[in-house]
Specification:
6-stranded mixed sheet; 12 strands; binds adenosine-5'-diphosphate; binds magnesium ion
Length: about 300
């Protein structure tokens, strides 16, 4: 297990949270949580419902303020008062609801709140041509193939919508991209689409914080993994320190598997799902066995 501070090598660190705590009334939502994010890496924050994942990212993205601890962005201690503050520091957050308008076109949504205008007030109008051109080239740079940028976002799949939200944040210059459960409402195939764009964002040098409760989604893309349990960190591990079965074993209870089964059933049909779940169950059992053999591992 590597303490989060060990990842801090000089001023390359984009985001450094140190012993952050947050309380809601009597509920301690987070206690002494430390996290570093470097350029070009994916840090996964894993934990069950109520673990404190959303509270953590809301602090990082300026929705809440921490009660205790230090929050340092590119070497300077900060205290954000709004998501706008965080955005101005290059920290962009994609929430599950995505802040997209289904009836508007892909390119309209791509520029939502930052429209390229032509002419001067009061004759300003949305520059459709420019918007289409930029949207198309930005999406292509991320490997996203949308046939028609004039098509309403509501006609796209959930995975495509998430991918556009990621491309949009990257286009707007995000240094840190925070994704709160971007794959949890998606089937296996669509989740795969989103995971691919997480990797693309990372390859462009963005530091990605990927929140999920699904170790099957986290493991393939994550460079480091922080496990949260009831507001406390169970440790931060590099991929080298943790293999897939160990991660699954740390995360998986019966709930996780039944949820996975449900997800797989809706996506690929019952037979394949049953096989996958059997495999996951086997992996979990194996990991449990391995841990039992080496209790101090
Ligand atoms: N605004 C709030 N007011 C009171 N309690 C909250 C609030 N937000 C979160 N909590 C509590 O903090 C804990 C962590 O919640 P949350 O960060 O949403 O977890 P997760 O995203 O991992 O499911 C939970 O016990 C939750 O009930
Ligand atoms: Mg949450």
């Amino acid at each position: 297990m590597s303490e989060s501070t060990s990842a801090t090598n000089g001023n390359a660190t984009l985001l450094h949270a140190e012993r952050i705590s947050k309380q809601f009334g009597n509920v301690i939502a987070l206690q002494d949580i430390s996290l570093d994010v470097l350029p070009g890496e994916v840090v996964c924050v894993l934990g069950d419902n109520g673990a404190g994942k959303s509270t953590l990212i809301k602090i990082l993205s300026g929705v809440f303020q921490h009660d205790k601890g230090r929050y340092v962005v590119e070497g300077k201690e900060v205290r954000f008062h709004s998501p706008r503050d965080a955005l101005d520091h290059g920290i962009a957050t994609v929430y599950q609801d995505l802040a997209m308008i289904p009836l508007l076109s892909v390119s309209r949504n791509f520029f939502l709140g930052a429209e390229p205008n032509k002419g001067f007030w009061p004759l300003k109008f949305f520059d459709v041509k420019t918007a289409d051109r930029v949207t198309r080239s930005e999406l292509r740079a991320m490997g996203i193939d949308i046939r028609d940028t004039a098509q309403p976002v509501g006609t796209l799949s959930g995975g495509e919508r998430q991918s556009i939200a990621i491309a949009r944040a990257v286009h707007r210059g995000a240094k840190v991209l925070i994704l709160d459960e971007p794959t949890s409402a998606l089937g296996v195939k669509q989740a795969g689409v989103v995971l691919r764009y997480i990797v693309k964002a990372r390859d462009r040098g963005v530091g990605v914080v990927f929140i999920t409760h699904n170790p099957h989604h986290a493991y393939p893309v994550g460079d480091r993994f922080m496990l949260l349990n009831r507001g406390q960190s169970m440790g931060t591990f590099t991929k080298a320190e943790l293999d897939r079965t160990q991660l699954i074993q740390m995360m998986a209870g019966g709930e996780e598997l039944s949820e996975l089964q449900h997800e797989l059933t809706s996506a690929v049909g019952a037979e394949a799902a049953a096989a996958e779940v059997a495999e996951a169950a086997e992996a979990t059992a194996e990991a449990a066995e391995a841990t039992a053999e080496t209790p101090e591992a």
